[in-house]
Design goal:
The chain has one domain: Aldolase class I (TIM Barrel, Alpha-Beta Barrel). The two termini are about 20 Å apart. The chain is about 30% helix and about 15% strand.
């Protein structure tokens, strides 16, 4: 199993399929975009499938989440999902996406064995969407949400990042929209993972502020914390339930002590933390004839060195060199 020196066991594998994205969200990358990884450096479908198989059959991975960049830009995505879903034991499968094009491919992803999706939606206003994402694609995202629900990729979860003086006043409207459509909303504190390194703690909307904005309109009651497990979101019943809203306070309410995640980048690097400064390269072993057990052993060694926490609140904290789009969510 993938056990670190603090006794945490990684069972949730986040697989980045590409570093490319068709949006330019301000909290992720600059307007001109980034220099994408050269194609020869990216793992092939066969290499991805092999690493996922090793993770599931040898290392105890029980959930595989496909991320990006934007994973819908990866050709062969349904086949990659199908390969993961066909493993024994079968892992749970999920996708984190910006939703653009999801309405078109949701049926094929569901047929391939995808269980559910998380879709990023930061605003319901077209002008604000364009300001945040630098693209006029809000309608496509809303269509993607509806298409995912229609295809049975449920529960459809919505991820929202609030930015001060841009979309933070929309928190109640976003929750009402999700309640009306049967989606599960999760607000996420903005994290220091932007390519420009422009994140500032004093301008970040905190979990407490999010709850204050929601409580002005809705009656919120904290769910039983003992049932949270390794889930990153604190859940709150809305107006007596059964519907809930989640708040992921990655910065002000860190949950590192229960972390069960490990990340595989699109170019074959194992990251034992979203904010890790070091990576373990599996690609040479893959391409130079390494056995499954040799790859598994290097993977175990990568997890063994995991730090006790992300260190954001430490004065010595430094952002990782890679931005979120190159790491995977």
């Amino acid at each position: 199993m993938l056990t670190d020196s603090y006794g945490r066991v990684a069972t949730d594998l986040r697989v980045s399929l590409t570093d490319r994205c068709n949006l330019r969200c301000t909290y992720c990358m600059p307007p001109e975009g980034l220099e994408w990884l050269p194609k020869p450096e990216l793992l092939t479908d066969e290499e991805l499938n092999r690493l996922i198989r090793i993770g599931v059959t040898r290392l105890g991975i029980t959930e595989v989440r496909f991320t990006g960049g934007e994973p819908l830009l990866r050709r062969g995505l349904p086949e990659i999902v199908a390969a993961a879903a066909a493993l024994d034991p079968r892992p749970k499968t999920a996708l984190t996406t910006n939703g653009i094009g999801l309405s078109r491919v949701a049926p094929s992803l569901a047929e391939a064995g995808l269980n559910r999706v998380n879709v990023s939606l930061d605003t319901l206003r077209p002008d604000v969407f364009e300001k945040l994402a630098r693209r006029r694609r809000l309608h496509d995202v809303l269509e993607g949400l509806a298409g995912a629900a229609a295809a049975g990729l449920i529960p459809v979860k919505v991820n929202t990042v609030l930015m001060r003086d841009i979309n933070d006043s929309e928190a109640p409207d976003l929750l009402r929209y999700c309640l009306d459509h049967g989606y599960q909303l999760r607000f996420i504190e903005q994290m220091p993972l932007d390519a420009q390194h422009g994140w500032r703690r004093d301008t970040m909307i905190t979990a407490d502020e999010i709850l204050d904005r929601l409580s002005a309109v809705f009656d919120l009651e904290a769910a039983d914390a003992s049932t949270r497990g390794s889930a990153p979101a604190e859940l709150f019943y809305v107006d007596g339930g059964p519907a809930t809203v989640g708040v992921i306070g990655s910065v002000t309410r860190p949950f590192c002590g229960a972390c069960d995640r490990v990340r595989l980048t699109a170019d074959g690097q194992i990251r034992n933390c979203l904010f890790a400064r070091e990576e373990s390269d599996l690609r040479p072993l893959l391409r130079e004839g390494g056995t499954d057990e040799e790859i598994a052993e290097r993977w175990r060694a990568a997890i063994a060195t995991k730090m006790p926490g992300h260190g954001i609140n430490d004065p010595s904290f430094l952002q990782p060199a890679r931005p979120m789009s190159a790491i995977g969510g």
